[in-house]
Design brief:
By secondary structure, the chain is mainly alpha-helical. The protein has one domain. Helix content is about 70%, strand content about 5%. The chain is built from twelve helices and two strands. It has a two-stranded antiparallel ribbon. Strand 1 and strand 2 form a beta hairpin. The radius of gyration is 25 Å and the shape is globular. It starts with a helix and ends with a helix.
Length: about 300
């Protein structure tokens, strides 16, 4: 919770609360504080963090082992008419094994069993998530630029949200495969970066701030006045009780919702994979292939000839 709330809080504070101005007459900097934006910064950080956590849980397929062993969320919440059904439990285990969360906790558990530290694994996965976070931030806006001449006016929010969800789902599906191939290199790179730059604590804030600036420059600079998000600005002001809303707040909120779900998913996967009590069915060899045809049963006469 601290990660998903404090990270956007720090990034939004750096972006909006402070304003640095250069005074050429005195050759000095002056610091301005936008106190009217403080309520928006706190509210946007809280709501974006909670929504990012929900997206990470739902899209990533999060399910504790106790839930899977009961047949899934519906059965665990007693909303199913077949509680403790063997077929339902088998299907829940199969879904969990092939879900992004199930694949990631298996990967983390294997890496941890090989002697790698949890913090190193977590840092390596954070590095591997950065390209995917960049893709989730940029791709919806690129698609919007391509279809803008044919887009219906006043539908920018709906279009961006649909594109964002599609790209987020694809990214979370790709993440376990990418992590399985490059986790060793990423773990080594993380150790090197920590030893050289000492930025491990500030890395999530810097990544969020950097991607937010890239998205703002791209959208505002390349699209200019052709994009109208005043309706979205008014909606956010209403949700925050009439608080002052910055001009580019919608872009920064979409950036936060692009970065934080993958970061939350990584944290959940590491916490789940660090558990020594992973069930044996989750670690079955996926490379086993079921034979296409069963071997023929020998005839009785053939057996008698063989024994003779």
């Amino acid at each position: 919770m601290g990660q998903i709330v404090l990270t956007p809080l720090a990034a939004f504070t750096i972006t909006y609360l402070f304003e640095f101005k250069w005074d050429s007459a005195t050759n000095s900097f002056t610091l301005g504080i936008h106190e009217e934006l403080l309520l928006w910064i706190i509210g946007a950080s809280f709501y974006s963090g909670l929504l990012a956590l929900v997206l990470a849980l739902v899209v990533g397929g999060f399910a504790p082992n106790s839930v899977v062993s009961r047949g899934g969320w519906l059965s665990a919440l007693k909303l199913s008419n077949k509680p403790r059904d063997a077929d339902l439990i088998s299907r829940a285990k199969l879904r969990h094994t092939h879900s992004p969360y199930g694949q990631m906790i298996r990967l983390v558990s294997d890496q941890h069993d090989d002697g790698k530290g949890i913090i190193s694994i977590f840092g390596g996965l954070q590095l591997l998530a950065i390209p995917l976070q960049f893709m989730v931030v940029i791709v919806p806006w690129l698609i919007l630029m391509l279809v803008m001449p044919w887009a219906a006016p006043g539908r920018v929010l709906e279009f961006i949200v649909v594109c964002y969800l599609a790209v987020l789902i694809i990214s979370l599906r790709m993440f376990p495969r990418i992590a399985g191939r490059f986790i060793g290199v990423a773990t080594f790179a993380r150790r090197w970066l920590v030893n050289v730059t000492k930025l491990s604590i500030l890395a999530p804030v810097l990544v969020l701030w950097m991607l937010g600036r890239i998205a703002t420059v791209m959208v505002v600079g390349m699209m200019g006045d052709s994009i109208d998000i005043t309706a979205e600005q008014d909606l956010m002001a209403t949700l925050l009780g009439g608080a002052s809303v910055p001009q580019n707040s919608f872009i920064d909120l979409m950036t936060a919702l692009s970065v934080l779900p993958l970061a939350s998913f990584t944290t959940l996967a590491v916490l789940g994979g660090a558990n020594k009590g992973l069930p044996s069915w989750l670690k079955l060899d996926e490379r086993w292939d079921k034979p296409d045809r069963p071997e023929p049963i020998p005839e009785v006469d053939d057996l008698l000839d063989e024994w003779a």
